[in-house]
User: Fold this.
Amino acid sequence: MPENLEAIMTRFKTGKQTLEDINNLSLLIKEGKVTLATGAGAVALGGNVSDAVIVTGNNNIVIKGSDAEAIKAALLKSHVRQFLNAILQDIESQFKWSNLLNDHNTQNDKNPRYIPIQVTLERISQHLVETPLAYSEQITELKRLYAYKGFNEEQTQCNRVDWEEAKKRYQKLIVLADPGMGKSTLLRMDAWKTAQEQIQNLDDNKISIEDVNFPVFLRLSDLAKEKDDDKIIDSISNLMTKYAAPEIFELLKKKLETGKCLVLLDALDEVPQDYRDSLRTKLNNFASTYTGKIICTSRIIGYDKTFFKSDKEVQIIPFGQNQIERYISWFINDKSVVEGLNPGTSSKPTPLIFDL
Assistant:
């Protein structure tokens, strides 16, 4: 066995492998120069199963037994971490909080500036002006309809709960709100927090690979355009390829089949009409058997109640004056500017206003 491979194996067995070790061994496996033989197949290779390495006639190497099991587990854990980190980096690139207002105090922040939202467990919109119009169609008409909408302060106090509480109560949720109220930001934050938690728990050995919960954040319009006619699981996996090494695909599909993903589907109202019927069928077939959590968002105008059979519809509550002042104070040192905010202008502030 080559000396450098023996050193790599030693580091894997002791849990001290480096990223370079992982990349080098992964490349050797991909090229067919190294094979990991695990389970019953290891015995069939010949020799005693406790033998760690077999060098074949063409100088390729078969690693088997407990060594193969340990290396295989370490490689899979590394691929899972890379997958979760790729999701984190993608979300962080969209938030752009690190350079907001060029404030040097925010440059070293590891967490986005975000005010937790509240939702109502009963609808507070005016149903008479709702329509299943697609977002991309009849924009002038949509603007006219929004002009009729408004919030009743007494209604927003009814069944008002923190978003985290609403998530605990229901497995399948529809989150409704007007444009700019932070629907997409909400889902991205949930995906970001889930990825962070899963990486930390893996590193602390609190969970195994089987227990990892993958966050899956997708736009429904992208999902609708996938050509796969069989299972929505395949469509989701195809769209997640930008994050994952090939070794993750089968694991992702397995987790989608067993309810081990947080499925976050954004902008139902933006699904083109031509795709809605087929996506409705696939999505509800998937949801009817999926045991994990599914959260969809939609603008109120353009929402089609029949599109997704949720356990509950909730509606985002607008920011109050105190929330606005708290958010702005993170970035503006002059308190007089914050205190000078006109309460009369905050009747419908939103989380997205400051998500620059």
Remarks:
- The chain has two domains: 3-83, 114-317.
- The longest helix spans residues 65-95.
- The first strand starts at residue 34 and ends at 37.
